[in-house]
Amino acid sequence: MVASFGGFHEQLPLSASQLIAMYLHLPLWGAYTLVYFGTVWVTYQRKLKCGVPILAITLMYILCFISTADSLQRAYSAYIFHAGTASEFFLTSSDGRTLNDTSYGLLSAVGDALILWRLWIIWSRDIRILVVPCLLYIMGIACVIITVVIDIKYASNPNGHFAVEWLYNSATEGGLGISVALSCLVTALIIGKIWWVRRQVVKMLRRTGAENQNAQTTVHRRVTMILVESGALYTLVQAAYMASLLSRSLQKNMDEEYDVIVLGTGLTECILSGLLSVEGKKVLHMDRNDYYGGDSASLNLTQLYRKFRPSQSPPAELGRDRDYAIDLIPKFIIASGELTKILVHTDVTRYLEFKQIAGSFVYRDGAISKVPSTEMEAVKSSLMGLFEKRRAKNFFSFLQNWKDDDPVTHQGINLDKDSMKTIYEKFGLEPGTQDFVGHAMALYLDDDYITKPARPTYERIILYTSSMARYGKSPYIYPLYGLGELPQSFARLSAIYGGTYMLDKSIDEIVVDADGKFVGVKSGNETVKAKQVIGDPSYFGGVATGATGGAEGGKVRVVEEGKVVRAICILKHPIPNTENADSAQIVIPQKQVKRKHDIYIAAVSSTHNVAAKDVYIAIVSTIVETDRPEQELAPGLSLLGPIHDKFVSVTPLYTPTASGQADNIFITRSYDATSHFETVVDDVHDVWKRVIGAPLVLKKREEVNVQE
Q1: DSSP for 418-447?
Q2: Using one digit for the tens of pLDDT, what is the confidence trace for 545-588?
Q3: Which residues contact 101 (CB under 8 A, 6 or more apart)?
Q4: Rounded to the nearest 5°, which phi and psi values hold at 125?
Q5: Whole-angstrom Cα distance, residue 688 to residue 383?
Q6: How far apart are CA 378 and CA 386, in angstroms?
Q7: Residue 27: how many CB atoms within 10 A of its CB?
Q8: pLDDT tens digits for range 258-297
Q9: Phi-psi region of 504 (alpha: psi -120 to 50; beta: other; left: phi over 0)
């Protein structure tokens, strides 16, 4: 069987057991259909007055039909298009949940109401007997409402659904548990009443001497009567369904042994987790936090103030809490970059929507200038004088026409030997133009690249220009609802392919054997074993946050190589001199402010669903060079205009001390100060090669859809 999607064909063989599980609904549905129509036929033939029960079971039959049809469709989707098991798909994907949860919720509500009605009738319409069952019924309805509200609220943002999975699962399992408890209670009360009445009747018949064969029902008939009258079969079905859910949950415990344990849910770790799961690895993903994203998370207002100012609440004037998704790490996605290729390769784009960044700007000679995105903008640009524009045009033509196998295009330059300084001098580019090319286009943090071979810079400039040409305006795209959507989307990918997630789980120790090789991870009194572990530096001694794996046995696994200072600024206006852009990137080259490293500004707004209307989020960042990091951001902060509020953080940059191949402990790098994700993807490729032993190969699919 072959599935085709996104212009990519993949062989997905289905086993006999999978096919049986996939179509198990059909025989059960057939049996239910026979019982339903048999009940209606008997009622009609005997002219029984059972209007309410018939109406109820008819409604239940319709709801069951909807739920069964939806489950079959989702099972087909799981096996054919997601190459995973149906149970994993049901538990991890929000696709189609609204219909399924609504129909099943109504089905349970009607079924529970029917046995409550039966209880009321059998107990001679005594309203007192309904007090406790009705309280349970109301609690169950509340759980159903919570699940449906979550489905509706996050219908257009499935990753948000994944972020509140704990609440969804609690409401689902809690509602089902309450329904089972209600059914058991009502069944017990009905059986008790039937037993008591029958006992009284038998006693009366014995006293009157009227006891005969007709008065003595067989055991078979008595059991049948109790089952029919009490709704015990309904209770057994509910209990069996709940047991199946619990068994799936209990299968995912820390007693299992995994191929890979991933610590931390930052973007790097989630990409690796998703790719490894697709590769067929058994992955356990753990995080000490109760949310996805780690350092690359997007926070709402309450979370933002709780992180930076625990004793202060967000001001009411900023609007609703849920309108905000503020990034902790300011980065944009290069349209033709490596992260875009991974997004397309893994089909994670089905969980995301993207929007262009309105413009890319550079600071020069005390003013902000737009990086030209069209020929007309280039002609009008104030970045260069008339003669410098001609020299720059010759320089860019040289780069665009370069062909490795055509010496005529080389003009005497060897990209693998000659430095960028040599090329700049050949074309006579001014220092200001060199700053623009190296920092606004090649996106280097400093000037170290100038004395190195030119090929990496050539590749960076070509990447920038091709990304600019892809969608226009700027070379950057950005996911709606913030960068925190990226790790959540890869987490969904991992879960669909069998990955197990445990949030809010303390990581107390990285367990190694006598030879120093990785054995497992200890959390509380539990230890989970795996062949390999991947994690961000904070779990290996990078930050004093719990894990003792950073220097077990005296071995230092990570070292600090610098710090990044970031200022999250809330504005009530666009950044001045950016043509009122709703989003922008501004690069301040190091020489323009007499520094060793560039300063970056990344700005987004309500257009990207990350802030309330007329509110803008600008994040200024750079590498720390002095003992007064916040003051180093002053050149960037001064470009923003009035700042409504500001949150400053200084984050260490950690790098692993070893490859991890000797002890099976693989550590990722901290997120640097660059304005893009290319270095993150470089780290993904590096860790993948060390873990798997082979390079990561990405297959080509259709491109990302981006909103204008």
Answers
A1: SBHHHHHHHHT--HHHHHIIIIIIS--SSS
A2: 444 444 454 578 899 999 999 999 999 999 999 989 999 999 99
A3: 144, 147, 148, 151, 172
A4: 55, 35
A5: 41
A6: 11
A7: 9
A8: 999 999 999 999 999 999 998 889 999 999 887 788 888 8
A9: left
